[in-house]
Design brief:
mainly alpha
Length: 68
Amino acid sequence: MSATLAERLAVELRDESDLPLHELLSDREFQVLRMIASGKTVKEIADELSLSVKTVSTYRARILRKRA
């Protein structure tokens, strides 16, 4: 097995729990997380991103699930 192939396999097989949370999030989930962390309400985030409150709440729930 070549060194390149071994490295690719190692990267693909690594345990996702070793990754920082932000690397497990989609770009939109990370964007919502940053906005929540800055103190914005779900409604403010929804208005700023032109999304529904329900959609932002779904992103928030996904973030919390990935944190566990």
